[in-house]
């Protein structure tokens, strides 16, 4: 099969498309022929050695795959050859074939595009876990979404509306703000004059929940606008700088700083993860959420696609096709 290989930690440009041996499923695994492979910001971090985990080299990057089962292990009970599934794994996604434990596979509803299924895993899964479990977002609360035109940001906008929040989207251009409004945001603002615009929208109440995959200077502004008992969700640091919290702000404002690590969540709380996915797929079927697939590219274009995402040039979700 063809796959993207990371042979050494370093620049994304060092990834290569190569012919490698087809994988074989273990007793509890399934072998999936890819229809789509999701591309995510953490993929770029992991190949540069900047992620929380460092796989043994060489490895195939990629967290997400959706496709059709070609073979099953001897102990597989629930799934069969020909079933269409999506799954999340720590590595192995950028390949024509993937191996997944049966317990990690989500059967796809009839007619569901593989591209959308990939988007519902890491991007929507992260945002859902952030807002549902970590942020405890309630109906009527004010949610501020930073980086609102990215895959996780747009997911947070839609999930926030599904949970009944008033959603304020922050995005860097008119086009991106338009996309956020089309996704359901009640307001969309830019980074210029951010403090004054947010104060005008939130008043003395302040912000109930912040979804922040950006970090950097944005964090320094938003923590000063938190409302009492607010929850600030630390999702990532796309701006490049990991900010520090002046502890006196948490004391005076009585808000929570909450970490969000979806990969750890899926490993430690598989039952809750499964329930989250069931809710997300249900919302998808009802039309409450709809991934925006902004780019579809062949597997051979993995390097430029990933570089664009890392440069924050992407709007919505990007997927690779075999």
From TrEMBL:
<dbReference type="InterPro" id="IPR013154">
    <property type="entry name" value="ADH-like_N"/>
</dbReference>
<keyword id="KW-0560">Oxidoreductase</keyword>
<protein>
    <submittedName>
        <fullName>NADPH:quinone oxidoreductase family protein</fullName>
        <ecNumber>1.-.-.-</ecNumber>
    </submittedName>
</protein>
<dbReference type="InterPro" id="IPR020843">
    <property type="entry name" value="ER"/>
</dbReference>
<dbReference type="Pfam" id="PF08240">
    <property type="entry name" value="ADH_N"/>
</dbReference>
<feature type="domain" description="Enoyl reductase (ER)">
    <location>
        <begin position="10"/>
        <end position="320"/>
    </location>
</feature>
<dbReference type="InterPro" id="IPR036291">
    <property type="entry name" value="NAD(P)-bd_dom_sf"/>
</dbReference>
<dbReference type="Pfam" id="PF00107">
    <property type="entry name" value="ADH_zinc_N"/>
</dbReference>
<dbReference type="GO" id="GO:0016491">
    <property type="term" value="F:oxidoreductase activity"/>
</dbReference>
<dbReference type="InterPro" id="IPR051397">
    <property type="entry name" value="Zn-ADH-like_protein"/>
</dbReference>
<dbReference type="InterPro" id="IPR013149">
    <property type="entry name" value="ADH-like_C"/>
</dbReference>
<dbReference type="InterPro" id="IPR011032">
    <property type="entry name" value="GroES-like_sf"/>
</dbReference>
């Amino acid at each position: 099969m063809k796959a993207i290989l990371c042979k050494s930690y370093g620049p994304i440009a060092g990834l290569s498309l190569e012919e490698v041996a087809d994988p074989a499923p273990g007793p509890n695994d399934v072998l999936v022929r890819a229809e789509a492979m999701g591309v995510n910001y953490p993929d770029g971090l992991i190949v540069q050695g900047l992620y929380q985990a460092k796989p043994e080299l060489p490895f195939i990057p990629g967290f997400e795959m959706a496709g059709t089962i070609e073979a099953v292990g001897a102990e597989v009970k629930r799934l069969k050859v020909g079933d269409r599934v999506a799954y999340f794994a720590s590595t192995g996604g950028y390949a024509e074939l993937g191996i997944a434990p049966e317990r990690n596979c989500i059967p796809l509803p009839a007619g569901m595009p593989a591209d959308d299924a990939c988007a519902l895993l890491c991007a929507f899964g992260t945002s859902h876990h952030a807002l549902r479990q970590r942020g405890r977002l309630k109906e009527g609360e004010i949610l501020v979404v930073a980086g609102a035109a990215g895959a996780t940001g747009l997911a947070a906008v839609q999930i926030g509306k599904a949970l009944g929040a008033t959603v304020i989207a922050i995005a860097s251009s008119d086009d991106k703000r338009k996309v956020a409004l089309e996704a359901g945001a009640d307001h969309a603002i830019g980074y210029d004059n951010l403090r004054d615009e947010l104060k005008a929208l939130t008043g003395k109440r302040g912000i109930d929940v912040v979804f922040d995959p950006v970090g950097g200077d944005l964090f320094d502004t938003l923590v000063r606008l938190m409302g009492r008992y607010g929850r600030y969700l630390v999702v990532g640091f796309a701006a490049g700088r990991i900010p520090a919290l002046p502890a006196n702000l948490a004391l005076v404002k009585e808000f929570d700083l909450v970490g969000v690590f979806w990969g750890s969540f899926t490993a430690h709380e598989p039952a809750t993860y499964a329930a989250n996915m069931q809710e997300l797929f249900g919302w998808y079927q009802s039309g409450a959420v709809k991934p925006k697939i902004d780019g579809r590219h062949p597997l051979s274009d993995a390097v430029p696609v990933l570089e664009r995402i890392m440069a924050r040039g992407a709007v919505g979700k990007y997927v690779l096709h075999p």
